[in-house]
Design goal:
alpha/beta, Rossmann fold, Hypothetical Protein Tm841, Chain: A,domain 3, 2 domains, six-stranded mixed sheet, four-stranded parallel sheet, 13 strands, DegV
Amino acid sequence: MKIAVVTDSTAYLTKQQIAENNIHVIPIPVILDNQVYQEGIDIDSREFYQKLKNSSTFPSTSQPSIGELIDFYENLGNQGYEAVISIHLASTISGFVQTLETVAKEVKNTKVIPFDSQITVMLMGNMVIAATRMVKAGLNPDQIIDKLEDLRATTNEYFIVDDLQNLVRGGRLSNASAFIGSMLKIKPLLTFDRKSHKIVAFEKVRSMKKAIHRVEELFKIDQKEVDYPLRLIVIHANDEPAAEKWRDSLSKEYPQYQVDLSYFGPVIGTHLGEKALALAWMKDIDKLD
């Protein structure tokens, strides 16, 4: 059975990863100063944050049109793909997965199977890479979805943001009212809630240094409770030096784990703002059963 693996641009995969694994990527539109950009095509991360500094308005995000999506999947069907595993950013921060459920009913020449990663960024990217390996191993769509659900359950991530303005304006933060009004010099810690899968702010920490220390404490607690090898990812919003410093520190403290470096591109940066940092982890996809 010929199976395609699709994701969206918020997986933040490298061009090499996309090419080597035959991954099909749908760009998510970003709107800045009334101009629409296709993430990863018209605008990259560096350009986005530079434009953001000079922007007179808050950025926003959109979705490809249903017509464009139908054409995209029908084109895969025309290439002989009998099924498409389509892995996308959390349905709690975007309506994209719900849109794809509608699109799937309209595409007749291949079976489109939307999968809600319940997360985004490189955690989702690793799920996508794992899915391509499952395809190469000869697994069928049902088997792939089952294994992706197991892998999804191992993900965790904590964000440190400079302020909550973008998240609040975009409606992506479910408990914002508890944090607004006391943000001076405070670094809010955010995560995806394990039950609702919504982004929630759960602690306020004074200073970035203390926030990083607190996230490391939370990781220590989590890693002691798992019985599988982990892969860590330090993620930044246009602050690579800070991210590299954190990655190097973690690599020294946890030599048994792979610690990767990634970034928040335009779509996720729209909601988190510049200088956000995060530590994410999940089961190491290079050591799956």
